[in-house]
Structures are given as structure tokens and as C-alpha cells.
Write a structure and sequence with these properties.
The chain is of the alpha/beta class. Helix content is about 30%, strand content about 20%. The protein is built from eleven helices and 26 strands. The chain has a five-stranded parallel sheet, with helices on one face. Helix 1 packs parallel to helix 8.
Length: about 475
Amino acid sequence: MTRKPNLLSPNAALPHPLCREAHQLAEPAEPRRNRRPDPCRPRVVIVGGGFAGIHAANGLARLPVDVTLVDRRNHHTFQPLLYQVALAVLSPADIAQPIRTILRKRRNTQVLMDEVAGIDISAREISLASGAQLPYDYLVLATGATHSYFGKDEWALLAPGLKTIEDALEIRRRVLLAFELAERQMVEHGWHPALNFVVIGGGPTGVELAGAISDIAQLYMRRDFRHIDPAKSRVLLLEGSPRILAAYPDDLSAKAEAALTRLGVEVHTNTHVTGIGPGWVEAAGKRMDAVVTLWAAGVQASPLGKLLDAPLDRRGCVLVDAHLNPPGLPEVFVLGDLAHLEQDGRQVPGVAQPAMQMGDHAAKMIAADLAGAERPAFRYFDKGDMATIGRMDAVAKVEWPFKAHINGFPAWVTWLTVHIFFLIGFRNRLSVFAAWIWTYFTFTRGARLITGDQRLPGWQDQIAAGRVAPPVPPPPPTQSPNLSS
């Protein structure tokens, strides 16, 4: 019978403070592929395979520690490009890579696909959904954030958000299916419900989704259908605050709204959504039809933070100090979207840049402990923010290597370059770059696949309501250069 690894044994010995390896920070981990954990080495458990978790694991690779990374999925997702999967520019494999592949050269690291069910702070042990117990000397929590519907969780089925590959595929299914159902309805009955796409939330995700949907309708599908005109679709962006991209400077926010308007997106600010139903959205006292409704209005921290019994903010983020520790828990590091860290009187934003830097810094603090040195305080180095708007436009607040506000095509090229650089894996960079070049020059998108259910919430209700009103006359036939005589 095979003996279980020490990392899963609740009786595993704690590392001795005078362990010979504790100060050998420059030595690489054991080269043996199947090296068993050494009871003399500190055990680091990382929960979450996002930006913070991966960076922490990479930073610990050459330290004399044994690392276990736990994630309920087997892949790391490059979240800034999720919307491009959702709108059929990229395939899921272009922006995701197995965590094991990313960390396969880290000989001191093992990966478990499992989910945390409990945390025992006093015993320094976490419980997994599989029933296993995982002891730790250092615990790194980096499980990110999820959608927040502000107490209206029933809206989730009607207005999906965008945080995972599964979310992106569901959005892609709904958007593409809307056009297909409209074409079929037109062929069979001579009319179709209005193609209104409603995006709720004017942050970067909402702006990018709205611009990309408009691109699909105006450019990429204009020659694909014979009985409907996709360009007559409406894209509505609803934002409750006075301006979109509220975290950006005023001038960039105004330029983003102008760019969306040029794309045909109807931007409605100071508009609070009060109801969402199958095929409709209620906002500002009015009800509007919506063939597809998407949610980009709010996020909340992963529920894992509540298991620490530490102070939380209103979004469920764990309050941490300058060393990324909750109060009284120096062996626990909370990173990324799950952490609430104040710097210069403002909360560090929950985006990719701070998460990467926090992951790197957590590894440095563990290294300092092993060397008997003082832990360095974390300070977020802001390099800027960017949001893309449609096919060839973007806004960028550049903080490094120079300070500038740029928009339009130069900002778009900057956005492309930065995202290619930060993608993990040469194959991913090559495939994404090829997909973007192909899309740019051919006006076609290669991932327009509809999988799963072929129904849309509220579609049949809109059809039933339309039967009592005069049908919409079909548009005049258009000649397509792709048609053969």
C-alpha cells in the first residue's frame, strides 16, 4: 500500500527552527521528480491558481520549502482577455493553460485540483472537499472575486457575469444564438423580436463587452445573414454613476464614452437597474426589451475569506496590513481581489497588476523569515490602466515608464502589446497574436461556435408578445459579394 505524502498527514512534523536548510535560500529545489516532502522544510499551501497564486508559487520555487497549490480548476485563466472569448475572437485555450504545465519545472511544488472546505487557524490546517486535511506552516489565500448582484442572486441566471471560462462560453452562446434565432424567426414568420443587447455596468468589463458586441453586429456579421440585418441591433450600456470608467480620469472617461457612441452603443449614465426578468430589464422607471442581458456591475470577494474569522469589508475582502497579513495571523497571506489593503488613503485595486505584485511579495516575505530577516512592507507599483473599446480604440492611463493619458489607435496598440507580453506560454502568445491579425485584416472571427442549450431566456415571451402587434417588415435584400450566381 502506497504511503500518503506527509503534506496530507495531520501528524506531519513541524519544521525545526534550526533546520539546516532554513538559510540555504540560493539552492534550487531537489531535481528529483518524485521527491517526498521533507518534514524539516516549511510547508506552504497556496489556495488559488490565479495571478497572485501563480506568482507566489514561482517566487517560492528556489526556496527550501514544500509548496502545495490547490485550485478547484486545473487551469489558470488570463482574465483580462476573457471578454474576447465571450465575443468569439479567441478560443478558451488561447487564454488558459493547465496549472501543472505552468509549474512543472518547480520541483518543490505539487498541484491538487480540489476545493477548500474549512480552515483551522489554531491547528494550521485546511480541510478539502475531498475529505483530506492539509497542514501548513504558511497559508497563501488568493481565490479572487466573484459576481455580486447586490442581494438579487436570482438575476444571475438571467444576466451572466464574466469571471471564468464557463462564463465566457455562456455569454458567447447567448450573443451568437440571438442572431441565429432572429434569422430563423424571420425565415419562418417574416419578423423577429428586437435585437437589444443590454450590458449592466460601465466599468472596464462592461465597456469592453459593449464595444465588442457592437463590433460583431456592425462589422463581423454584416455579410453572414440573408434575412436579418445585424447592424440594426441595439447595444445599451447602463451605468448607475455619473460616468463610465469611474476609476479612470475624467478626460479618459469622456473619450471612452465618445468612442462607444461612435460604435453605436447607447450609453446611459445615472441609470440604476431595479429589475431583471426573462427578456427585459427595468431601469430608471422604464422597462426595455433585452434579448441578451449581461452583468458587469459588481463584484464580491471569494467566500473563503470568511473562514479566517478576520475583519472583512462590505465586499467580503479581508482587511490586511502592509505585510498582507490579517490581524494576528503572520503565517497567513491574503492576496489579490480577496485582500483589502489601503495605500496612500486609497484601496489597492483588485486587478491583475496588484495581484501579481502581491504574489511576488508573499514569496519575498517567506524568504525573509527563513533568512531571519525583517519582512519588507508591500507597496503597489502602479504602472497604469487600460481598457479597449471595440476593434481599434482604447483608453490608457500610463503611469510608467512615463505619465500620460492616451486614447484611440495608439492606446489600442499599447493594449495589444501589454496583453501579449503578459500571456503565459509562447504558444498562447503566438495564437492570440495570429487571431488578432486575422480578425483585423479579414473582418472574420474564428471561434463563433454555439454549444449547449439552444434557448434564450424570454425569447418565446417576446415572440408571444409580438404576435399581437404588427410584425416588423423584413429589410430589403442586400447583395453580398460572397454570393455566387
